Structures
1.
Amino acid sequence: MEGYRRFLALLVSALLLGFVAVVCSLVWVFRYREGLGWDGGAAEFNWHPVLVVTGFVFIQGIAIIVYRLPWTWKCSKLLMKFIHAGLNTIAMILAIVSMVAVFEYHNARNIPNMYSLHSWIGLTAVIFYSLQLFLGFAVFLLPFAPVPLRAALMPIHVYSGLLIFVAVIASALMGITEKLLFSLPHWKRPPEESAKVQRPNGGAPEGVEAESTMTDCSNADRSDAGFNSDAARKRNFKLDEAGQRSTM
Ligand code: HEM
């Protein structure tokens, strides 16, 4: 009984967390980005995070645990197989649409495809997921495979499924981090602020110079000490360039 309660608490927390992740991705694209659209622009790219978080993370997560829910153990095995396969198919469709969105967006803007570790891990996960789905249908759902083959493939299906899910989570985290890095070059201290701090009476106050060099590298005050160094200029150029090449 104690174990069952803990299981329920963990299950509800995991579902809530997944749901919150989907809501956060929607709030993010509608409130802080350009919303959703299908025009080759940034709004089309935004389908990518929304659909992978919804389908590939949340729905796939539910599909993985349906056999472990005690109250489904009374249901027919065939019904559970349909639910498991159905949820995984929905996740797959959403993942494919999300891929189309990001590839179309890149092509429309002449941004190269597959240039990051995120994209390679992500695409690998999608390819293995399709294989897993196809084999799952062929072996466990259609009535042709002999029982010994099903029994032999079941542990492989379980472990490869979990491995793909881990790869999907890793890829999603890398994608979010990458997006953050693309956006961060614009997250700078406003020039007016820095001018006020650096020139209270014509010079930089003690201790401010070093910090400014760390945080603000592209404002109008580059003539000030600290911004003039070669290293600061190079770093500044790199940040600006990264900002311009951002896929978002
Ligand atoms: C690009 C897969 C989640 C952000 C890509 C590409 C693939 C991919 C295959 C390459 C597209 C191209 O080269 O044209 C996946 C998979 C994910 C996932 C399988 C989930 C498991 C996310 C998330 C974000 C994200 C949650 C957050 C915003 C990006 C960005 C790009 C991209 C910024 C363009 C830069 C690049 O190619 O690395 N993704 N992605 N991805 N994805 Fe994801």
2.
Amino acid sequence: QIEPHYAMLDADTSFTHGAGQPLTTNPHILGYVQEQVALTRPASVYWLDGTRVERDALTQRAVSDGVLIPLNQTLRPGCYLHRSNPNDVARSEHLTFICSEDPRDCGPTSQWLHPSEAYTRMNALFEGSMQGKTMYVIPYVMGPLNSPFSMVGLQVTDSIYVALNMLIMTRAGKVALDQLGPTSEDFCRGLHAVAECDPDRRFVMHFPKDNVILSYGSGYGGNALLGKKCLALRMASHAGWRDGWMAEHMLILGAESPDGRVSHVAAAFPSACGKTNFAMLQPPASFGGWKITTVGDDIAWLRPNPADGRLYAVNPEAGYFGVAPGTSAASNPHAFAMVASHTIFTNVAMTPEGDVWWEGMTEQAPDQLIDWLGQPWNRATATTPAAHPNSRFTVSMWRNPTASPMADSPTGVPIDALVFGGRRADTVPLVLQAFDWSHGAMLGATLGSETTAASTGQTGILRRDPMAMRPFLGYHLAAYWSHWLAMRGRLTNPPAVFLVNWFRRAARDPAAPGYLDAARAGRFIWPGFGDNMRVLEWIVARTRGETGAAESLVGYVPRAGDINLAGLPGAADAADAERILNAASHICLDDWLAETRAMRAYFDEIDAHRSCPALGETEPQ
Ligand code: GTP
Ligand code: MN
Ligand code: MN
């Protein structure tokens, strides 16, 4: 499959490869780059144009610089491995700041810094930081081209790895300069340097009022690919608050039923809770005729459409930056097929044949590997994982065999259902439907997820992650919740809201309703992954008014027989399948009483932070 925006460029005969030169006369773009050159003093400046010619040339340069390691081109054509600095493998939430004049504009989930102090601190770091290096200038669009949803960004960086990732993750190059035009100054200014990659000299700073992002000292995706978490979530959530729309940590999928009707679902799960997997779901065999297509796997921009009163969504990204471990031909066949070619792998292990490997890719590891640190790894004696647990793949969304053609639609897709979900060992049933928008917003606001302690089977520590946005909010949480509630007034036909839990564990007490048997005690009840189609079918049917529900105290729940259990994996027979569903769906009133008290306590805690304390007094995140 070819990527439409690259295909378009190849066909455009009026456009020749820019060879690293600026393809714009926009004085604001040129002026911004000039200022960054004066500050960081690079040896040379390279402007990205977004062509394949350029991508291939930069890839070769990255290989000769040792930034990318070519994988076996017969086994993984167009695939490369990058090993990051071992101190730089995840987002740095405690070094991430929102910089606004008034400290009350952000918190308590985000950290505040006064803009003047932030600029002073960052300018000192960036001063002369690119000496002897090439500065890459990356114009990019977040969102489909020529869409009212879209935003243009300009990122300058000292990292060729970041440049190559941005070419996959965004619509980058000449298309962005064309969309901006020769005079507009409406673009997000982003300055980034990995520099010496020192965790003590590392910050990610956002300036919503100035439309500026400054990121120093890290090459990790969430810190360094400025279009993603920084622009598309933190800056965009702030812009949406101002302009009446929402930027959310949500996947977007299309669910086509056998009669050809398509419904769209957007779902927010905290990091590492299954968005990429759910977005690419392959229905089980008993769901012949159902087809799931992916619009996005991580971020949704949602706008009310005054014409029909519905909520429309676009995926601002053009690629997936997905978690590698756990991805296998069985758990996520589409993702597995997608990363067979033209993928950048970061911090995975390498086989002696020059292929990739990570925990969960096959049942057993190969005998010998080179681990993510570049060291020999031997299965018999290894005490550490071969791939880093947060190792990732970067791949164009158009390589997904079930990519939705609507992912390029400038108007977006109308959303029929919003879904929230986290890891909850108990209390939260497999699925419930909120009574209305406000109830749904409350379920989202109090979304909780447990840190995993899977090895011991113990219940983890519950952490509230409102709307799965805790690390990604660009303004105050209380204002965000008000914005969510107010959004209802802009929708005459709002999506239905659901809460799901794929991670409930079987009770250990034989007398408890969630008990199955000794062998399954403490284990995940629900098979998950492709079998989540069974829940998705009920959700879609609810939005179409085609199935009823039972009313419980905490929401609408499926009635007996509403969920298709044919061929449920792990079920001995039809009766056992029903026991599994009942154990996964059980609503225990004592647990929910405790849950509602905990929700109340959480709201009180946020309320106490209504005016955010100054830097130094904020809680570490
Ligand atoms: P980010 O990309 O960091 O925002 O995370 P994500 O929400 O995309 O998470 P992802 O889909 O990569 O899944 C993370 C982990 O959840 C992996 O270990 C998966 O194997 C596991 N997982 C995903 N779906 C299911 C499911 O339905 N059931 C179970 N038990 N595990 C799941
Ligand atoms: Mn994410
Ligand atoms: Mn993901």
3.
Amino acid sequence: MAKRLEGKTIVVTGASSGIGKSTAKEFARTSPKNLKLILTARRIDALKQIAAEIKEEVGDGVKVLPVKLDVSNPADVNGFVPSLPEEFKEIDVLVNNAGLVKGVAQAPGIEPEDINVMFNTNVTGLINMTQAILPIFKKRDEGGRGDIINIGSIAGREPYSGGSIYCATKAAVRSFTDALRKELIASRIRIIEIDPGQVETEFSVVRFYGDKSKADAVYKGCEPLTGDDIAEVIVFAAGRRENVVIADTLVFPSHQA
Ligand code: NDP
């Protein structure tokens, strides 16, 4: 697998914590000799810290570029590829991981601002990032080459009470991903979706507007996955032989079945 990843340039959105952070480290560990990682999120200090940790763990074989990027800001997304140093421009893999849930509320009590934030990040942000990077993939031979790995959610398949907006955003990710795969059928561009179940990250802290005690209560009495569990699946999918597409994968802890 390391050989297949060697020389690749990989973008991870939402790399400042949780699944994105684990994914960055897992790519670096799997292919430590010759890899370029572009780590994006809004918290640039956290990205710089992760870049330093990767350097300490695997050395200089992995070049890491931290980039401050808000996926919900079209100016950030449009400026992303043009702003990259030349040696990072030939992107091979985009992991569309940035996403969030805000609030637990039922209609008509859902905050309009939360609706906007979730759709602008989870859906529009993911689509805009895809559109920014696809032209790089499409100009390659055989109709194009590259991987887009979208992080959906079990919530996109099984909506739950109090989470209608988040569930709707992840269902939208699913539809977009499936349609895109069909649109690119004649190419070598792989469109992959990985849907996590319960994973212990900062996700629930964000959901409860920073209230850590409410976030901790979510995981009481169960054993959630870790970011590393999902990262291993993401890197496995990217490391397959070019003709193999791990198209659609649900990964959840055993108690959640
Ligand atoms: P975290 O809260 O730990 O990570 C979310 C990441 O997204 C952070 O790095 C955050 O960075 C980034 N992010 C949020 N908003 C934006 C934005 N507007 N622009 C750029 N980056 C943004 O949660 P997870 O690691 O758990 O979440 C990762 C993905 O996994 C999400 O898409 C989530 O929906 C999905 N998921 C999570 C599950 C779970 O149980 N944890 C279950 C199913 C799916 P920053 O704040 O620095 O911008």
